[in-house]
Specification:
about 130 residues; 6 helices; globular
């Protein structure tokens, strides 16, 4: 099997969906018996259009991700909550059942908040970022 360079691996990660990348991280952690410090943030692609954000005088640097409603795919939303946080099954289920609730209380940057929102909305949840 040919060995992939770092750049080739990053390009492969950029082409993956957030769910595929999350699954990859889980398998990687199980295979090598490690725990990622920041799940899914490993293959963070640089956001385009950063010029508009740089023009703002004061930019918010910490965001709240609030789960408004779980939607019809509650189990998928619970799985995403567990993938995004360090919560156990019961805690993630309680968070989803108690919606609207904050998933991250001002502990994440804009990029992480947007990724969490995209992942949860992809699972069928209604999410707001404050």
């Amino acid at each position: 099997m040919a060995k992939l360079s770092t750049d080739e691996l990053l390009e492969t990660f950029k082409e993956m969906t957030l769910l595929e990348l999350s699954d990859f991280v889980k398998v990687f952690e199980e295979t090598f018996d490690v725990k990622a410090a920041a799940p899914v943030a490993v293959a963070a692609a640089p956001a385009g259009g950063g010029g508009a954000a740089a023009e703002e005088a004061e930019e918010q640097d910490e965001f709240d991700v609030v789960l408004e409603a779980a939607g019809e795919k509650k189990i998928q939303v619970i799985k995403e909550i567990r993938a995004l946080t360090s919560l156990g099954l019961k805690e993630a289920k309680d968070l989803v059942d108690g919606a609207p609730k904050s998933v991250f209380d001002g502990k994440v940057n804009k990029e992480q908040a947007e990724k969490a929102k995209a992942a949860l909305e992809g699972a069928g949840a209604t999410v707001t970022v404050k």
